[in-house]
Amino acid sequence: MPQSSRTTPSPLPAAGTSAPGTPAQAAGRPAPAARPEQPAPRTTRIRALDGIRALAIIAVVLYHMRPALLTGGFVGVTVFFVLSGFLITRSVLRELSRERRFSYRRYLRRRLLRLWPPVLVTIAGAALLSYLIAPSLLPKVQADALPAALFASNWVYIFREVPYFAASGLPSPLTHLWYLGVLAQFYLVWPFILLALRRVRYSTLRIVAGLALASALLMAVLFFAGPDSTRAYYGLDTRAAELLIGALAALVSPYVASLWPRADSTTTPQPPAHSATAAFALRVGTGAALLALLALAVWADGESALTYAGGLTTTALLTALIVLTVHNPRLGLSRVLASAPFAYVGSRSFSLYLVHYPLLLLMNPATRTAEISGAAKIGQLLVVGLVAELFYRCVEQPSARLARAGWRAGLRGWWTGLRAWRSDIRAWRTGPRSWRSWRGLVSKHHLSDTIFAVLSAVSLLLVALLAFAPIPWQRLADSRAVALRPELAAPAPAISAPAVSGAAPGEAAASTNPGNPGSPANPATSASPNSAPEPSPTPAQGALQPIATQVPANMDTSAWAKDPATGVCSANAVMIGDSVTLGATEALREVLPNSVVDGKVSRQFAAGAEVFAQRQALGEKPRVLIYALGSNGPIGSEADIQKLVDAAQGLPVYFVTNRSPLEAQNPNNELLKSYAASHPNVGIIDWWAATEGHEEFLRDDGIHLTPTGQQHFATLIQQALCGA
C-alpha cells in the first residue's frame, strides 16, 4: 500500500535528436536546430491501481466490521501484497536502468521514512484510545507496541501461537500491523535477491516463478502440518508467493504493454496482428478475474484448507492479471477503476488500513450483546473515513514528503516553514482577515507538516514508554476498567433464594480464576460432591420440572430434590467446560453441590469426550452430562457433536450455547441447536439468549463473566436440571 503507483517516462532521448559530441557533429555536419527546452516530465500516478486499492481496502474494512459484512474480505490483504511486489520491483528496476547502480541506503531510507512515522502514530493513538475507552485492551497494545514498531509483529504472533482467525479473548488493536511486518521484511531482502538474479544467466522470470511456487507449497504444507493456520498465515516465507507474483507482473509488464494499440496509430508502430487476439484475451480474462476476486471476497473462509492450498495464490494470480491490464487507459475497466471515487479511496488506502482496525474494535466492544442498526454501521464507517482523511493529511502525506526529502532536508524545511509561518501570521493579524486568506496561509506553510512533527515526536516517546518503561500496565488498565464499569469489582452477595426465570438471582462469591482480572488462574478446577457441604433440601411437590430451551427426553429428575429457600439442588451431573465454566465454578458449587464442574482455560470443543472419559475413570457416575464448550473456536460439524454425545453412552446430554465476540459464535450456536432439534435426548441451555441485552454479565473481553454474570450462569444451569 505505501508504495506509490507512479510511472516514469523513458530516460532515452527523443527520436531525431543528438546528444553533444555525437557522430553528426564530429563529421562537420550542422547540428539539427535545437528544440525548445522542455521541463522534466512529472511522474504520473496510475489511477487505475488506486481503484484496485480501493476495492481491496473496502473488502478489508467490511471484513473487520463486527459482525463481518464480508466474510472473505481478508483476501484484500493479498491484493495489497501483489500491488506492493509489483511496484517495488518496478521501482528497483527503473532505478537500475536510469542510474546503472542501486543505492540500497537511499532505498531503505525512503521506505522506512514512509512507513515508520505512520506506524508510530498508529501505536500511540491505539494506546491512548484504549486507555480512555477500552482499558482492557491497553495491556495488549503494550505487549505489541515494540514488535509493531520494529515490523516484527507477524513472527511474534507465530511464536506466541496467536491465530488470526480463531484467537480467543480480545484481539489486540495492533493485530493488523502484521501485514506491515511482512511487507517491511520483504522490502529489506528483495533488492538483494533481484540484484543477484540480474547476475545469473538463467531466466529471472523462471527463478522468481519457482520461488513463488515454493512459497505457495510451503504455505500448504505448514497449514496441514500445524495445529492451526497461524504459521501459514503470518510467515514471510509463506506469504512471499503473493509478493513474488506481483514481482512477476512487473517483470512481464513491458511485454503486456506491447500488446495494446498506441493512441497515435499514424506515427507509432503498432503491435503485430496476432497481438490483437492476445489483447482481446486479456480483456476477457481481466473481467473474469475481477468477478472471481469479488466472489472470493464474499465466500472465502480463513480456516478452510482450500484457502492455504492454492486459494491465496489464486487470488494473487487474479490480481496480477488485473494489474497488468489496467495500464491501458482505453480499457473500460481501467476507466472505471480510475474514476474519481475509486481513485480517492485508493489514494487513502494506507491511512484507512492503519486506522480502521483499532477504531472498529473500540466502537464495537465485545460486551455488546445486541445487534447494531444499519445506521450505526454507516456511522462507524463515516468515523473511520473521517479519521483516515485527517491521518492522510496530517501523517501520511507529510511522511511521504519526508521520505522524498530525507531527514535533514525535511527538518530544515519544516523549521524554515515554521519561522515563515509565524512571520506571516503576524502580518495577517495586522492586515485584512478572511477565511480565504487564513486557508491560503495554512496551505502555504503546510500546517500539516507541523502537526506531523509534533505527532511523530510524541508518538515516539509514548511507544518508548510502552516498550521499556517499568509501569504496571495491567494494574493501570484494571483500575481504569473498574472506574468505567463498577460492576467488574462489585461484591457478590450469597444466595438467599432461588432464582426464577426472568428474575435477578443473588450473586455468588467470585473465585480466583480468569473471571477476575489480575488474579491467578488455575489451569483446571473441579467441584466434586465432597468439595461442598451436603444440602438439606425440602422435597418439592411432585417431580421437578427442568427449565431449558430443550430438555433431554431421557432425563430423570425423580431422585433429585431442591431446597426452595436456598435454591440448592441435589442433581448429580458432570459439567465440562472452558474458562467460562472455570470462572463460574464457585457459583455453580453453591447451587449444585453434588455435581462435578470441570473447567479449563482454552479447552477446545473436541476435548470434551476425552475429559468425560477421564471423569468416568475416576469412578464418577453422573445422571446427566453438560458440555459448555465452543468459546475458543469453531465446533466443526455435527460429526464432532456426535462424538461428544457418543462419549456419554446413553446419558442425557445438555449443550450450553456460547456468548463470545468470535465469528464462530453464531455458527456454533446454530449447529448445536440444529443437532438437538433432531436428537430428543440432547438438550440446549441457551446462555447466548440469557445474556441478550445484559452487558453487565460480561467482562470486557465479551466471554468471561462478572460476579453478576457468574450467578446468572449458575442459575441457568441449575434451572435446566431442577427447574425454578
TrEMBL record:
<protein>
    <submittedName>
        <fullName>Acyltransferase family protein</fullName>
    </submittedName>
</protein>
<keyword id="KW-0012">Acyltransferase</keyword>
<feature type="transmembrane region" description="Helical">
    <location>
        <begin position="113"/>
        <end position="134"/>
    </location>
</feature>
<feature type="transmembrane region" description="Helical">
    <location>
        <begin position="240"/>
        <end position="260"/>
    </location>
</feature>
<feature type="transmembrane region" description="Helical">
    <location>
        <begin position="204"/>
        <end position="225"/>
    </location>
</feature>
<feature type="transmembrane region" description="Helical">
    <location>
        <begin position="280"/>
        <end position="299"/>
    </location>
</feature>
<dbReference type="GO" id="GO:0005886">
    <property type="term" value="C:plasma membrane"/>
</dbReference>
<dbReference type="GO" id="GO:0009103">
    <property type="term" value="P:lipopolysaccharide biosynthetic process"/>
</dbReference>
<keyword id="KW-1003">Cell membrane</keyword>
<feature type="domain" description="Acyltransferase 3">
    <location>
        <begin position="47"/>
        <end position="372"/>
    </location>
</feature>
<feature type="compositionally biased region" description="Low complexity">
    <location>
        <begin position="7"/>
        <end position="42"/>
    </location>
</feature>
<feature type="region of interest" description="Disordered">
    <location>
        <begin position="497"/>
        <end position="543"/>
    </location>
</feature>
<feature type="region of interest" description="Disordered">
    <location>
        <begin position="1"/>
        <end position="42"/>
    </location>
</feature>
<dbReference type="InterPro" id="IPR050879">
    <property type="entry name" value="Acyltransferase_3"/>
</dbReference>
<feature type="transmembrane region" description="Helical">
    <location>
        <begin position="305"/>
        <end position="324"/>
    </location>
</feature>
<feature type="compositionally biased region" description="Low complexity">
    <location>
        <begin position="497"/>
        <end position="531"/>
    </location>
</feature>
<dbReference type="GO" id="GO:0016747">
    <property type="term" value="F:acyltransferase activity, transferring groups other than amino-acyl groups"/>
</dbReference>
<feature type="transmembrane region" description="Helical">
    <location>
        <begin position="71"/>
        <end position="93"/>
    </location>
</feature>
<feature type="transmembrane region" description="Helical">
    <location>
        <begin position="451"/>
        <end position="473"/>
    </location>
</feature>
<dbReference type="InterPro" id="IPR002656">
    <property type="entry name" value="Acyl_transf_3_dom"/>
</dbReference>
<keyword id="KW-1133">Transmembrane helix</keyword>
<keyword id="KW-0812">Transmembrane</keyword>
<keyword id="KW-0472">Membrane</keyword>
<keyword id="KW-0808">Transferase</keyword>
<feature type="transmembrane region" description="Helical">
    <location>
        <begin position="177"/>
        <end position="197"/>
    </location>
</feature>
<dbReference type="Pfam" id="PF01757">
    <property type="entry name" value="Acyl_transf_3"/>
</dbReference>
<dbReference type="InterPro" id="IPR036514">
    <property type="entry name" value="SGNH_hydro_sf"/>
</dbReference>
